[in-house]
Amino acid sequence: MTRRLPKKDVVIVGLGWTGSIMALELAKAGLDVVAIERGPWRDTATDFNITTAPDELRYAIRQEMFLRPKQETLTMRNRLDQTALPIRKFGSFLPPNGVGGGGMHWNGQTWRFLPDDFRIRTHLTERYGEAFLPENNFIQDWPMSYDELEPYYDRFEKTLGISGQAGNLKGQIQPGGNPFEGVRSDHYPTPPMQQGYSQSLFTKAATDMGLHPFPRPSANLSQAYTNPYGVRMAPCTYCGFCEWFGCANYSKSSPQTCVLPALMRHSNFEARTDSEVTKVNLSRDGKRATGVTFVDSEQVEWEQPADLVLICAFAFFNVRLMLMSGIGKPYDPNTAEGVVGRNYAYQVGAGAVGHFGPGYNFNPFAGAGSLGAALDDFNSDNFDHGPHGFVGGASLTNAYTNGRPISYHPVPPGTPGWGAQWKRAVHETYNSTTNVGAQGSVMAYRDAYLDLDPTYKDPLGRPLMRMTFDYHPNEQKMAKFMMERSGEIIRRMGAKQVSTNALRVPYTVVPYQTTHNTGGAVIGNDPTTSALNRYGQSWDVPNVFVTGASSFPQNAGYNPTGTVGALCYWTLDAIKNQFLKSDAPLVQL
Amino acid sequence: MINITRRQLLATTAVIGATVMAGAPVRARIMSGALPWSPNQVYPPPIVTPGPWQFFTADEAAVVEAIADRIIPADDLGPGGKDAGCAIFIDRQLIGPYGTSEWLYMEPPFVLDAAANFGIQSPITPTRRYRDGLAALAAYTKQNFAGRLFHQLDAADQDRVLTGLEKGDVKIPEGKAFFNQVQANVVEGYFADPVYGGNKDMCGWKLVGFPGVRYDYRDVIANPNKPYTLPPVSLMGRASKEAAR
Amino acid sequence: MRRLGLAALLLLGTATLARADLDSYVAVEQGRYLAVAGDCAACHASPKGPFAGGRAIETPFGNINAANLTPDRDTGLGRWSAEDFWHALHDGHSVTDGHLYPAFPYNYYTRVTRTDSDALFAFLRSVEPVRNPVDRNTLPWPFSMRVSMLGWNALEFTPGVFQPDPQRSTEFNRGAYLVEGLGHCGACHTPMNAIGGPKQAQYLQGNSIQNWIAPNLTNDAQAGLGTWSVDDIVQYLQTGRNLHAAAAGPMGEVVEISTSKMTVPDLRAIATYLKERGAAGPAVPAPLPATDAHMDAGAALYTDNCSACHARDGKGVADLFPALAGAPSVRQDDPTTTIRVIITGAQVAATAGAPTSPAMPSFGWHLSDAQIADVVTYLRNTWGNAAPAVAATQVSSVRSAVAVPGK
After folding, report:
1. What is the pLDDT of residue C58?
2. Which residues in chain A touch residue B27, judged by CB atoms under 8 angstroms apart?
3. pLDDT the model gives residue A2
4. What is the pTM of this model?
């Protein structure tokens, strides 16, 4: 029997980046807000205590901060004619769990998408013709321009204190920055991180090759910073325990370090953790949300009524919740109709590893999640794709996020996998190896999508999310191109031996690639190809808004968080300035 | 209520939800008004102490130690897998949630002939893999090496058997999977923090030059391409302090 | 909160209002502010309602439950008059319970003027009445005999309203009135004698209380506020931090509930008083040489464990991680605070001006008594600091008192 709780103005599903920002801003506006988070509360001094945080086995290998597959996982298949099988142990991506979400244990690479990315279909068609686009693509323009979103990128960067070098300030190209970036209205809130030795080799080599390297924009701060909420952060100390770990010394931007201290001061906000939202409840005509149902830590069911429902969980879980709540028409790849689950995308990863031989001290253990020198010469449509036969691009970076030895003990190609020779190679190679990595876009396709699995269930008896995805020929071609460009740069840096990392095809769930899963509940101007309007508001249920990378129509050659944050502030403005007054659909067709 | 600060009164209302009315309270942590905090709150890892084997039999342990010593042999660069404590590491891992795949999704149906890119689809847990794999390996060596167990073979024969397992030429059931499991765990044990039982005296970290759990390398960034000279430090401190404890 | 208006009112109040009209809005608002300055909520707060009492207050002689100050007729102050309230505050005598124990710091509140007492009472009369019966007699015998307070009062207590010193500025006198009266800072920051009374000769020179050291608040350069400016003190009281230090533990609570909500002129007055009273503190020893074996071990421990937040040069991160270099808290004669904070961790106060409230992690599981002794010795004798070395036995005794979850 479901017990009903007193009504709140706003219920937020998930207390990660977007959930905490929404909660803070709406609590400041005087609303009664409750956020319901499936995982536990996480706090710097306790959960990322400096005496326990730097533990590779516990957090990187045994994956302690992440969602346990036992609690929820997905099934995966590459093609429609296959049976999807459960991801019994997470590998390719690591979904977050707990307050802070992915923002708690991310690397902190914080990008803006490029102006062309926002009008990608129009632009590519103008330049190359429609026939140039890949077969079966679902590429679509975003429902706003870069310029419209720019002030919100700025706001998110200021909340986080991002360390970087502006490349295009109010139309003026700045030395040392990214000349390809969209126009910025302001500098980054803090200067770029001090770069390491291998970054200096990359920067020199790339510059000599006529490319345009710049320091990667980073949420590992270069100096102490107080954000507009009055919350203060410390400078990063390059500890090398960044991604998959919580930060022990308040120097990585996260909900914990940027938002929660301000949020928790509001007595009209309540956080309810260890509780899983199982459904958004709708009125009988299905046109209005009345609140959510959740189960607490003893699996007792409760109803939380609310006037406004914000779905702010990780991308997959947003889509799954919408499907299980009947918000929007589920996508069917056979008919190409429906919108929830449509336009799922991921990220391309490829690159080259350089072995430099004796005499080098790269010291990879002195790393930080966003420490890196990057270049965008091969990203988006910054170069002529005509001769190459693919669309999309990648950012190329030389980085050291870590040198943790269980995972990182490189050996030159041809070394045996174990034994005395292997041991000696590990000893000799650790400090004299670096790499250039490409992180590339993935287009949307008709046959890459999310739905509910017909067979496998979670412990509550509900169907798991099913992912149907593989890398299409377009992405494979692009990855090969990027791998070759990476190899050229690393050779120029002085590598004696180069091995290349090709894109793994078919898509495999085993080795870690990225947790940049995008799409499934995309924003758009057309309700037949999008689940949400341009403000992230459900076309079908106007008092439901959805945030996160599930909004992306397709993925670009960058980490998604910067754009997730910008869209969050953009949606927030629409809620505060329009929806709270009108309580109506914000886009009339 | 002795000595509870007012801050704590206002902040965390755990379990008995003061904010909930009507009926039984929500079992959840409900937080409002302040960042929750308590003194002495930290979640240390389980500290492995020397002692009897907790999962392996004596014979099993001897075999795992011998395998570890071939995967990572002793040489002038440092101890092998055996002296590094890899078998102790594995023993203690297997009695914990890792050993029984407690966190993984272990619901049927299991499709055992799935392609590799679908990941683990077998219900065999690490504990089963070791138990069954070591038994099968024992049967194999007894049959092919005049009744001897793996640790009683000479190094060359040991390497030959391991290579055979790795490639599938040594035909024992799940032989490849068993080899991959052991190799992965030996590497984990060699490089994980010594608190887990392996990487004795931080020999693995000394092999590669990994300084351990220090948290401030601004001096390394400020002095590029210089060798790092401070000794490694683990979750339990520097090596000399370990000896003192 | 109408800070400017109130400040003006407070300055006027003592001069023109002979007796406050208890129902006047002005008196109630004045009383609300005075309750903040007096930090009444620290003891009298309750989950049942503001000022409903019931909380057990630890004393060296046992626990006493704080009274219900709401105007409930049966369990609170509903039957009291302003005169009754004045007697409690000024004389330490309650018309309901008899002699009060100095857990209620009447030996400081006695300095409060009648006008302010009336305003406080007016405010308390205006809060929601809460029925909360409190057992007010929980001390063990012989302390359970309240009449025994006659003896204590004879030795330790002379009632008397604050008398401003005509030689001092208005600001100094205001600060003195606040510190010596409602602020009752001496109740923690003055060492106590065997019967729990303050050692007046060492007023505000620091005190060990509940396994914390309430530091020296004189203008002493080694252990007191000598290296702090008036602005530093104001910033600390208002936000919980300044370049030098961060308020945590019991003082963190004082900042959050009390001083961060006081007016800046009042905080400046307090700072002025503390700075201008004079200096009295311990002799400064010669610092231990860096070559000392304990210093050497401590330096290594510091590099490995502490430098990622407090920095190699001990300067921390401004307004986030307190500086250890030049920190009075590190240089107190008694190192208990530094030791306990390493063992249990500590959360910095959260205020509107500084909401971050970072927490020092708990190191207790990870460092032995000898290691903590070495690193604390190192902190106390590096970067210009000099203070007595710390022995492992000192750490052990602190650990047994604090390394219990919940303390």
Report:
1. 84
2. 274, 296-298, 300
3. 80
4. 0.94
